[in-house]
């Protein structure tokens, strides 16, 4: 095939894909800047690409053309930098292929190498190789960071929860007074449980009757219904709410949630459709449920406001609902009175579970 003197600027991709038996190809005197279209020519014996606009020449095709016997790529505008090092090595080491006299393969740039033959240029490419290694390393690190970020975004709540179980859960168990009959303390001057983890540290006493876990969209119901009826009711239960500032400022959010839950006898989870979509709400539900699994403290009280679609209910919530009833809010005045009476009764119940007769 002779395609010389056709003013070709590029070769279409897969142009020679079905020409595996081609043995002679002449592309001389065109305007080619690369030979990317030359792929799959495993039978090629003669290749002429002289008098083009090639600044470098990839040796990949040369090395894969196993029957190549004659190559002419003279009179091109070669840039003699480290990019041409593989071509220089190929010319010097490949003994099976005849290449036209080397003086024809001269450098046209940079100025320091102008007019020299490709094989006459001394190239120190150690820094160039180090640069490529650095780029490859940074690229690999970027890919790893993207993968880690993707995994964290998808499983961040599980990661937070596992982190708490590994590093904080046992610490809170160690310093909490589990005596449900003890009075709720009014003093906020106790040492922070995270300040000192020594065995001789003072016991952390309960300061609240219940920690309230809810989504911010339920704030109006909390302010207008829960707080007046529970805190300002006849028994004046004390509620702990992170959003209200009941937990000292400056805590890492994981510690703040744990602090509030363990400083309270019970945990009231105000379930809503938004609650199901919030990872932090689900995280608080997990910690409260873990007190039952690890400490035999059934502290969780489920309150539902509004309807929750079945597809929104998490696996954890479904497991909890198998053994626990939900107090559902209603707009009926009589139903609301029953609701508050039932909630107060749940707050008065001891949290400790007696498992001695579970297997009988």
Structure write-up:
The chain is built from ten helices and eleven strands. The chain is rod-shaped, with a radius of gyration of 38 Å. The relative contact order is 0.07. It is 36% helix and 11% strand. It starts with 23 loop residues before the first strand and ends in a 12-residue tail after the last helix. The longest helix has 42 residues, at 126-167. It is an alpha/beta fold and 360 residues long. Helix 3 packs across helix 8. It folds into three domains: 24-123, Leucine-rich repeat, LRR (right-handed beta-alpha superhelix), CATH 3.80.10; 124-167; 172-348, Rossmann fold, CATH 3.40.50. The strands form three sheets. The protein has a five-stranded parallel β-sheet, sandwiched between helices. The chain has a four-stranded parallel β-sheet with strand order 1-2-3-5, with no helix packed on it. It has helices at 60-64, 85-93, 126-167, 169-175, 219-231, 253-262, 273-277, 279-295, 315-321, 333-348; strands at 24-26, 46-48, 70-72, 78-79, 98-99, 107-109, 208-213, 239-240, 264-271, 300-304, 326-328.
